[in-house]
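Appendix B, Record 12. Input sequence as logged:
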Amino acid sequence: MKKAAAWLLAGCMLLGLSACSVKENQVFVQKVADLAQMGGIAPTDRFSGLVVSESVTEIQRDKDKVVDTLYVREGDDVTQGQELFSYDTDQLQLTLEKQKLELEQLASSIENYGIQIAQLEKDRERAGSGDKLKYTLQIQTNQIDLKEAELKLKTKQSEVQKSEHLLANALVTSPVDGRVTSISEDETDEYGKPKAYITIQQSGSYRVKGTLNEMQRGSIMEGTRLRMESRLDPTQYWMGTVTLVDYENPTQGNNNGYYISSGSDEMSSSSRYPFYVELDSSDGLLLGQHLYLSVASEEEVSLEGVTLGSAFICFDEEGNSYVWAESSQGKLEKRTVELGEYDMAQDVYEILSGLAETDYVAFPDEELCVEGAPTSRQTQKGGSGQ
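Logged structural output:
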């Protein structure tokens, strides 16, 4: 990972050393407080975000029916019960009348089959032994036709009930309060997935949506802390955490206003991946508001107390965490530490116990870091640690 490489550079290359460098068999150690001040390497890209609702309601359209009147437009705010669109009732009425006529015909056929079967059974009783088989075959044929007609009758009854329901509900209303974000006449999207006719972002709890293109994959991850500034007032900002990077549902096309690149637009036609930010607080935000997004600075990270880069932390077979620390005798020791929260933006862990800012730790190396190894706070060039 880039952040692990960053800590490797911070722990070794920036000080002119390789990991766990040795001077006269001494393992180099660094002060925890100094490592914390180095911070991590975070993406410098600036993104554009849009305040959306956590809840989205999709209104489907019956593909077999014709929309007569559309009462809303994209961007309209709607309330629960407000009219959205209506179906063509003339067509619905004609369909219903046709279905009822077919239903009557099927009922009449069933009645006739019953009469015919009863008459054939009487005729068979009076017929001679040579003719009974003929009547039996006719009765069986009518019985099969009767069963088919009964099945068709049940299907047609369901169709009539559906048409009556549609006719009674030809006017479609909004089930929620919110904003109409899209109206689509297409039944499927560019990937062949079913597409809603009307999409409504529900009023209430908000989150922020941004997008990544192929070049930014990995620069924003679940758990990344972001700062979101107002476009009108840079002093007004909100903090939040990325909860989802949706690589399963990419979109194709131009930037759509979701990314501000510091370079060229060569990726403008690449796939784009939405990500969502859970807000610490949504006070003052409006649905549909545009924001500038950036990775939170070290001062804005919520971790408190002692912190240490993840590259310095090891785990044993039981999953217990430890570091290679300098003991009071100037020897290397494997010290158990208790981890708190993890800040992905800075790639650091909060250390709850086992380590203080005044302690010294070594960058782990399987060959050089052993219990009892002598430690050194000096670089190969003769500099001293703080």
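The mean pLDDT is 80.
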